[in-house]
Amino acid sequence: MKKNSIFPALLILLSVFASAVWASEAEDNYKNFCWQCHGMTGNGMGVNVQDMSVQPRDHTSAKSMGGRSDADLFKVIKEGGLAIDKSVLMPPWGGTFSDEEIHDLVTYLRKLCQCR
Amino acid sequence: MKHFVLIASLMATGSALATDGDAILEQRCAGCHALSGPAAQSVPELWKRKGPDLFYAGSKYKDNWLEKWLVKPRRIRPAGYHYVQHIKPGKKRDMVDMSTLTPHPVLSAEDAEDVAEALMKRKAPADLITKGDFKGGSISASFGEMVFSTFNGCMACHEIEPNFGGLSGPEVYTAAKRMQEDYLVSYIRNPQAWNPKTPMPNKHTAEQNIQKIVRYLQALAKENWDEKK
Questions:
Q1: Which residues are within 8 A (CB) of B47 and not within 5 positions of it... i.e. 6 or more apart?
Q2: Do domains B20-120 and B141-228 have the same CATH topology?
Q3: What are the structural domains, with CATH classification, of chain A?
């Protein structure tokens, strides 16, 4: 009986630990790949924007992110801006990320915009 | 006496080795550059590397460029390697934090020759690069410019002339001076095959358009940018 109560507790601990690892991987991925255009705070004002013809999206704005479904966000990360009729300047990252990593990035974006 | 001669000759061999390109690489370059593979397999591992990997330098760089550059190095990546460690929030947008950028060490002409020779021996695995992959010939460079900037948006991250273009990637106006065309073709085709965590995406560019981009890079590299700066 004691054993049975320890296992669920261990499972919960393990899943908390695993989700922390996934969150930090998503954050590392966001920094490494997204910061260059979307900026260190995600406000769309990255180090590259000065000579860009189209402004990168502000990920901290609930207004500009709220209109996008999770499926849209997944698609635009994987296949690039053209896949959702947006700018070619947003490249496809399907060659870089696994689907799981893209799902984690979508979750990370939702935290940045604090929107659904 | 015999022993003395033996020791003296061993010491002489040792000092000769110290001036050899491989020894200089180990002593002066290994702190920032990976001299053996594999490429970084995770983002934190990539951030620990302070310069580009050199274990396939012989398949990447042009020999004569390497030798000249090592004597008179100039910045290739406006935001350093890796850009994440050299930017700071600015008033309007993120800025390059120049105070964190350090100039590349300068080598003597003799050392540069030795190092370039040693680097050129470090080749990529045969399945990554194909001799003659860049076809050259009469491909249009101006169409390549359209592919590069308009269709692919590469200038979002790369400068196509001094102070024009993105800052996170290496400038491309001297790319074809620095790098072998076959490497450029292979890298553009699949950047992750070379460096899984590179901030450069695979744009799934059609083969004929990769050829045009490299032709465009060749045309860019012919201009005398030092004079125009």
A1: A32, B82, B84, B85
A2: yes
A3: 22-113 (1.10.760.10)
Q: How far is A82 from chain B (nearest CA, A)?
A: 10
Contact list in A for residue B169 (CB cut-off 8 A) is 36
The mean pLDDT value for A25-51 works out to 98
Task: Find, in chain A, the residue whose alpha carbon is nearest to that of B92.
Answer: A45
Instruction: Report domain extents, chain B.
Output: 20-120, 141-228
Phi, psi of B95 (to 5 degrees): -120, 160
Chain-chain contact of B96 with A87 (C-beta, under 8 angstroms): no
Judged by a CB distance cut-off of 8 A, whether residue A42 touches chain B is no
The pLDDT assigned to B6 comes to 44
Q: Report CB contact under 8 Å: B192, A95.
A: yes
b/e map of A22-34 (b: 16 or more CB within 10 Å)? beebbebbbbbbb
Percent of residues, chain A, with pLDDT higher than 90: 78
What fold characterizes domain B141-228? Cytochrome Bc1 Complex; Chain D, domain 2 (1.10.760)
pLDDT tens digit sequence for B178-197: 999 999 999 999 999 999 99
- Comparing A11 with B31, the larger pLDDT belongs to B31
Instruction: Find, in chain A, the residue whose alpha carbon is nearest to that of B97.
Output: A47
ipTM, 2 decimals?
A: 0.89
For the segment(s) B20-120, the CATH number from 1.10.760, 1.10.10, 3.30.450, 1.20.58 is 1.10.760
